[in-house]
Amino acid sequence: MNDFIYLDNAATTKTAPEVVEAMLPYFTINYGNPSSIYSLGSTAQKAVMESREYIASTIGAKSNEIYFTGGGSESDNWALIATAEAYASRGRHIITSKIEHHAILHTCEYLEKKGYEITYIDVDENGIIKLDDLKAAIRQDTILISIMFANNEIGTIQPIKEIGQMAKAHDILFHTDAVQAYAHLPIHVDEMNIDMLSASGHKFQGPKGIGFLYIRTGIKIRSFLHGGQQERGRRAGTENVPGIVGIGKAARLAFSHMEEREKKEKELRDYLIKKIEGEIPYCKLNGDKEKRLSNNVNYSFQFIEGESLLIMLDRKGICGSSGSACTSGSLDPSHVLLAIGLPHEMAHGSLRLTVNWENTLEEMDRAVEAIKGIVERLRNMSPLYEDYINKNK
Amino acid sequence: MYSEKVMEHFENPRNVGEIENASGVGTVGNAKCGDIMRIYLDIDDNGMIQDCKFKTFGCGAAVATSSMATELVKGKSIQDAMKVTNKAVMEALDGLPPVKVHCSLLAEEAIHAALWDYAEKHGIKIEGLEKPKSDIHEGEEEKEEY
């Protein structure tokens, strides 16, 4: 038995041992630069090519449409900034949602300062994009729609195909941040009309510091990093060969057991939800019940604050996360939880648990037992709970 | 991120609870910012704080500063309790991370609010005590430039 229970797989995952094993030779044996002419270089180049080809095949893309990056945030930054620059003559309006990751939202704020207009569309109380609002937001000068595939906090899966159709019908580029979805859900860029897609290796048991951006052929976005011919001249810098090998291996593993894994994770997720619902009063499941990532559980516990809960859980060896302001370094709680209409105190009292298929039902039992005790303890300390009890005496 | 002392007070907070028919009760903070503190004081006829209890909704630092603040004012005269500043609370906890300094301000404010309530109930004036602000975080929400 592990001495801790890891339930924060949306933050990062354990690198699969097979992935580490596949990477190791590219540090000490096949360490050549892929751009070099000798065979040591071409061995590395071949490994990069194989990884690129495999990843392309998983989303129905061509290998020259996959650009390796330093991770999801870089991919998101690149997609937005480069599109905005390249298509500025056509328009300066971008549509996104209120529940995107900060890699998108902060990049949008940056673009606003550069003179672009951004429309942030609302979501419903379950965190699903309102398609009518999206349609209404489209203008003559809209150049890009960027909507995440699945939300990192509440796990809600968006109607990507419908959004893709809408974008295509209006001749607008469509980017999706698929960091939480890639290698977890089936994705096909043609069937879903996706023009650009961001993904990150460490969300599916690959290494950290490696991700990719899919860019459909014909999209004229320019170089993001200048200084070399790597990644078709669009992203300079010697390739992170071990990382690229690692993300390729992780993708192979993830796609080989996707169905089985999702089934097991759903079982764990639904067990956890049922158990929390049954044992802890005054709580609310955040996000959609059905259109939800198989690994995501997000609850708000009334009258308590999330950081306190996390620290106490950590003391019991349980790793989770929260949308509380105290965990973000700002005074505001999660923008996602506010966007689905939670009052501030409920947003502060949220707990996100994201499972992995290697977790066990026994671990779920232990986690719920710990949460139950801690929530009770914190409520006994809470003036909000005191007021509630006094009011309902 | 927290000192051992903060963790110790967070895990074993002193003086949690309510005081029935308290001499003074003060509640500060708001749910929007994620912390609310309520302090109960039991003050005798000589103006000595006989007992002090708290209830807090908030992060680890909010709980620890509440706990430490109640410890620091317990057994003191009103005038000495007025000298318990947020700095004193922070020092007693071996410091707080910069983003948590507002929790110590909230603790100081909660004590002042409870004393204000006591003074109003008894029709007295406490030197140096001002009416508590309704929202400790006012003006703090400036956004970082980048």
Jot down its keywords.
heterodimer, A: 393 residues, alpha/beta, Aspartate Aminotransferase, domain 2, Aspartate Aminotransferase, domain 1, 2 domains, 3-stranded antiparallel β-sheet, 14 helices, 41% helix, 13% strand, B: 146 residues, 5 helices, disordered C terminus
Structure at a glance:
Chain A is of the alpha/beta class. In chain A, 41% of the residues lie in helices and 13% in strands. Chain B is 38% helix and 17% strand.
Describe the structure.
The complex is a heterodimer of chains A (393) and B (146). Helix content of chain A is 41%, strand content 13%. Chain A is α/β, with parallel strands linked by helices and 393 residues long. Chain A folds into two domains: 17-256, Aspartate Aminotransferase, domain 2 (3-Layer(aba) Sandwich); 258-391, Alpha-Beta Complex (Aspartate Aminotransferase, domain 1). In chain A, the strands form three sheets. Chain A has a seven-stranded mixed beta sheet with strand order 2-8-7-6-5-3-4, sandwiched between helices. Chain A is globular and about 80 Å long. The mean pLDDT of chain A is 95. Chain B has 146 residues and is of the alpha+beta class. Chain B has one domain: Sufe protein. Chain: A. Chain B has helices at 4-11, 60-73, 78-82, 86-92, 101-122; strands at residues 24-30, 35-43, 49-57. In chain B, β1 (24-30) and β2 form a beta hairpin. The longest helix of chain B has 22 residues, at 101-122. Chain B is globular, with a radius of gyration of 15 Å.
Oligomeric nature of the chains: heterodimer
CATH class of the largest domain in chain A: Alpha Beta
> If helices are DSSP runs of H or I spanning 4 or more residues, what is the number of helices of chain A?
14
**Class by SSE composition of chain B:** alpha+beta
Q: What is the overall shape of chain A? A: globular
> Percentage of helical residues of chain B?
25-40%
Order of helices and strands of chain A: EHHHEHEHEHEHEEEHHEEHEHHEHH
The name of the CATH topology of chain B is Sufe protein. Chain: A
One letter per element, helices H and strands E, the order of chain B comes to HEEEHHHH
